[in-house]
Write a structure and sequence with these properties.
By secondary structure, this protein is of the alpha+beta class. It contains 5 helices and 6 strands, in the order βββββααβααα. The strands form 2 sheets. It has a 3-stranded antiparallel beta sheet, with no helix packed on it. It has a 3-stranded mixed beta sheet with strand order 5-4-6. Helix 2 crosses helix 3. The longest helix is centred in the middle third of the chain and has 17 residues.
C-alpha cells in the first residue's frame, strides 16, 4: 500500500472495521515515513464469466439495468431495484466463490424478482429461461398460483 502523500511503499494499520454490512473492511493506516494517516477500503472482488468465455467484474448496475427492462410499466422503484441487486450480490457472495458464471447470476435474480413483482418475474424468466410456447408461460403461472394457495 503506497502512502498517497509521500508514495512510501510501507504503511501501518492503526484501526480496522467492517463496513457495508460486512462486505468490506475499512482500514485506517499511518505512513511511517511522513506520519500522515489515510483510509483504505478493502472488498473481495467477484468476477463474472460470460457465455463467450470472457470475464468481467461483477456489477450491481448491470443487474439493475437487466431487471429494469422486465419492470417497465410495473410499480417497481429504483430503490426496489437497488435492494434486489444487493440481495443478488449477497446470495452470490455467500456461495464462497470469487468467480461466478453469468448463468448463476440469472438464477440468483429469479427468487428476489418473484417476491418483488410477479409480472416482472414472468417477463424476466421468459427471456432468461427461453420460454418457447404458451405452455411454458402456463407452467410458470401455475407455479406462481400454487405458491399463493400454499402461502
Amino acid at each position: 500500500m503506497h502512502c498517497p502523500f509521500c508514495r512510501n511503499t510501507d504503511s501501518r494499520v492503526v484501526d480496522s472495521r467492517t463496513a457495508d454490512d460486512g462486505q468490506s473492511i475499512r482500514r485506517r493506516r499511518q505512513c511511517p515515513e511522513c506520519g500522515k494517516r489515510f483510509t483504505t477500503i478493502e472488498t473481495a472482488s467477484l468476477t463474472v464469466t460470460k457465455r463467450s468465455g470472457t470475464s468481467e467484474p461483477f456489477s450491481r448496475n448491470k443487474i439493475m439495468n437487466g431487471v429494469r427492462k422486465a419492470c417497465q410499466g410495473r410499480p417497481v422503484t429504483e430503490d426496489d431495484l437497488a435492494v434486489l441487486a444487493q440481495k443478488v450480490e449477497e446470495t452470490l457472495r455467500s456461495q464462497g466463490s470469487a468467480v461466478i458464471d453469468a448463468y448463476e447470476i440469472g438464477l440468483a435474480i429469479l427468487g428476489p424478482l418473484r417476491e418483488l413483482d410477479e409480472v416482472a418475474y414472468l417477463r424476466f424468466a421468459s427471456v432468461y429461461q427461453g420460454f418457447e410456447s404458451l405452455d411454458d408461460f402456463e407452467d410458470a403461472i401455475i407455479s406462481l398460483r400454487a405458491d399463493h394457495t400454499v402461502g
